[in-house]
Write a structure and sequence with these properties.
Blueprint lengths: L1 H57 L7 H10 L15 H8 L1 H44 L10 H14 L3 H16 L6 H15 L2 H8 L2 H10 L3 H12 L3 H13 L2
Helix pairs in contact: 4-11, 5-6, 5-7, 6-7, 7-8, 7-10, 8-10, 10-11
Length: about 260
């Protein structure tokens, strides 16, 4: 009886040992594929990390964000503009800057004066052009004027003497001869008072005494004789005298009178 019990217990232990061995074998078989998969997964992760590192080296370096850049710029101290050294300004420039108002006023006055001078010059140029036109119109008539006197009278001889001395540039002798002719005319020896007056005026003009020549030609008896005889040479000579004196307006009036006479 005891032997039967002992054999049954030993067989039970044998079956328990066999079942444990089978369980251990099954666990080992299950763990091997898991370990293999883990090893394969680790190898692939390592290769991926190596690829990521190679790609990162090709990328541009990281840049700071906009907020960081603004904060960096705002934190920098403000740069000051370089101050201009006072030694670079000359005393003349400093004086001009301090008195620029006076310089502006002077420049304005200069501009006004230049404009006024330009207007006067234009007016004078127009007057001269008008006088030249009148002179060209009366030139032929002025040259053909003949002295009306008696060729046999003493006054005529004095007139001829005065003209001859004018041609010889003996101006003092010409004036004396014309004055003597004027005395003869006043005595009634000759009626050519107008010719005498023109001769005296011509001598005075050539001497440069324009005022005396104008006084002779503007005498009432001379003007009346010129109007009576229709002799425009007197007005032409007066126009020449005033032109030489620069009084172009008065000269133009006398030239107009000369042209209006036949």
């Amino acid at each position: 009886m005891s032997a039967l019990v002992a054999s049954s217990s030993s067989s039970a232990r044998a079956r328990a040992v066999a079942s444990r061995k089978a369980a251990l074998s099954t666990r080992r078989q299950i763990r091997r594929p898991v370990a293999a998969r883990a090893a394969a997964s680790g190898a692939s992760d390592a290769s991926v990390s190596r690829v990521d590192a190679s790609a990162a080296s090709l990328l541009p370096p990281p840049t700071p964000s906009t907020a960081s850049l603004v904060a960096t710029v705002a934190a920098r101290p403000a740069t000051k503009a370089p101050a201009v050294a006072s030694d670079d300004v000359s005393p003349f420039m400093a004086f001009c800057r301090a008195n620029w108002g006076y310089f502006a006023a002077l420049q304005t006055i200069a501009l006004i004066g230049a404009a006024n001078n330009g207007i006067l010059a234009k007016k004078r140029r127009l007057e001269i052009a008008e006088i030249n036109a009148k002179l060209r119109a009366m030139m032929q008539k002025y040259e053909e004027q003949q002295d009306a006197c008696d060729p046999d009278g003493p006054a005529s001889r004095k007139l001829s003497e005065g003209k001859r001395k004018l041609k010889e540039d003996d101006l003092d002798g010409a004036v004396q001869a014309f004055n003597e002719a004027a005395l003869l005319v006043e005595r009634g020896d000759d009626a050519s008072a107008l010719s005498v007056a023109k001769g005296v005026a011509t001598a005075l003009i050539r001497k440069g005494d324009l005022a005396a020549a104008i006084a002779v030609l503007e005498a009432k008896d001379v003007v009346d004789a010129a109007v009576r005889d229709g002799d425009g040479a007197v007005y032409g000579m007066l126009g020449d005298c005033y032109t030489d004196r620069g009084e172009f307006a008065t000269a133009g009036k006398y030239y107009d009178k000369c042209l209006s006479m036949d």
